[in-house]
């Protein structure tokens, strides 16, 4: 057994020696087949050399694939505006209607019907109507304008901004759209109340809600132009609440002259602010103090 | 060609963008850099979506502020994150954006719908579409009216890899005749004419091929 074991050991040793010898003999021959890893500079050189070919191949392949799909000589030819309408406020106004979803107009119509119903009802006291309108009309206008900016995402604002229509102009048109709808709502409701036989003076009643609505509108446009939208809402909201507080006091005192004076001042301030801001917006080509942003 | 001269913009107490002199020529320019290096801020300035505190930008030698309205009709812009009006359909959003750009061509809308493979979902509302498809719609609106300057911040974010490859080709083709500036973390994925690298609000490298 011991003898056999010794013979195996010898054979193993002999094999190892032969393997090593063979490896040494073949090394110079195999060396030529071993590839060394490329250096960074070599890779860069190769990419630089191939870049023009990549470009050509890419262009050829892309054109083949895309042009065959379109069967068009120039892939982007149809992107060119065939009719570019002159930019106008009317066009912008029409576009802003896209921003308001059908649901919004349905809700507005529902509110309008409700207002007509309430105003025309014999069971509603006139004094209550005097308080209802100055609260609902400006609130509706502010909420409607806010709804148009419901996508609070900054990205969407920027998309709207990088267009020939300046952001201030877009804001102004949306605000006027809401103001106009509010006027229709208010006038409809007022007429309904008047025709239902309520003992109220139509002109005074209209002035009662038109004054705060115009004040809020004027403040919104003027402050937004100078300080941005958040400040505009903060300040015009505060002014409206203050106005309503004063309104309550003057109504409670049944001081018609004071009430009329208060409404007259609010209406005048609102109109002056709105007209002044619109003039500035138009004069500056629709851009506020900040050239680009809202 | 877009020229940048002494541009400065303060973002926060610790961070401000500062770029001296830079020329971006026609072709595809890719901007890379780590998060917070100032890529998006720079793109916003180039797209005229924000104002610089100092310095100016010129397009073919004309300062941006001189003809901002006209210039903006020549810019296609894609910010990094956009949440569109969710009730709008694909077609409505494109019509809205086309209208704002002063382009009322139906052909133009049809063309982007085809180019970005949106024909089948033209009547689908935004809130019913995946983030990737919404991204394609936002990319599509940038092409309306064939603007000369295209500014895109991570345009292929959320887009599936196959579609992304196709869009890269499309953008490369578009860049042959226009100026395309794209911020992307993987500049090697693009065949670029110019590669800008940004670091801590400054231009670290500018390589032109």
From TrEMBL, chain A:
This is DUF2157 domain-containing protein. It comes from the Bacteria. Keywords: Membrane, Transmembrane, Transmembrane helix. The lineage of its organism: Bacteria, Bacillati, Bacillota, Bacilli, Bacillales. The chain crosses the membrane at residues 98-120, 132-150, 171-194, 200-223, 264-282.
UniProtKB/TrEMBL annotation, chain B:
GO terms for molecular function: ATP binding. It comes from the Bacteria. Residues 2-209 form the ABC transporter domain. SUPFAM superfamilies: P-loop containing nucleoside triphosphate hydrolases (SSF52540). Pfam families: ABC_tran. The keyword Nucleotide-binding applies. Keywords: ATP-binding, Nucleotide-binding, Transport. This is ATP-binding cassette domain-containing protein. It comes from Paenibacillus arenosi. The lineage of its organism: Bacteria, Bacillati, Bacillota, Bacilli, Bacillales.
